[in-house]
From TrEMBL:
Keywords (A to Z) from UniProt: Chaperone, Cytoplasm, Isomerase, Rotamase
Stated name of the protein: Peptidyl-prolyl cis-trans isomerase
Domain of life: Bacteria
Primary enzyme class: isomerase
Recorded GO CC terms: cytoplasm
Species this protein is from: Desulfobulbus oralis
Compartments, record wording: Cytoplasm
InterPro entries xrefs: PPIase_dom_sf, PPIase_FKBP_dom
């Protein structure tokens, strides 16, 4: 019986996967009925996911954890800020849970970045510029469906 080929960098693979956070909440799911096809090493999925797939064979499933620093970064409490409510004027009524595009200056240039509203009162709005998944370990269950040439 011939040895089955293993996935390696630059292979084109088809895969299904489920990504979840602690507590089991599914944050992304790609079913076997609609797999994603990509070249390992292309950066279409997290590099740590691609690395964990090395050596997998067609039909094999693996479950592994991706640490925050290899996923969406560590949570940085300095990225929480209070913004005067007046900044929003009458354009928007910020409410906890909303994700807003706010302008910040980075390296001398204005950029739009997402910020999650944590709290709001009559005077100020507390926003968090961290990615919503920052600081979380992501658990992936991946099934390798095919290896192309």
């Amino acid at each position: 019986m011939a040895e089955q080929r293993q996935a390696r960098f630059f292979d084109t693979v088809s895969m299904s996967y489920t990504a979840s956070v602690p507590g089991g909440e599914v944050i992304e799911q790609v079913p076997e009925s609609a797999p994603v096809t990509l070249s390992l090493g292309s950066g279409r999925v997290l590099m740590a996911v691609e690395a964990a797939m090395m050596g997998m064979q067609v039909g094999e499933s693996r479950t592994f954890n991706i640490q925050p620093e290899d996923a969406f970064g560590r949570y940085d409490p300095k990225l929480k800020q209070d913004v005067p409510r007046a900044v929003f004027g009458d354009r928007i009524d910020p409410q906890p849970g909303m994700v807003l595009a706010l302008s910040v200056e980075r390296n001398g240039r204005k950029q739009q970045v997402p910020a999650t509203v944590l709290a709001a009162d009559h005077q100020s709005v507390t926003v968090d510029y961290n990615h919503p998944l920052a600081g979380k370990t992501i658990t992936y269950t991946v099934k390798l469906l095919a290896i192309g040439s």
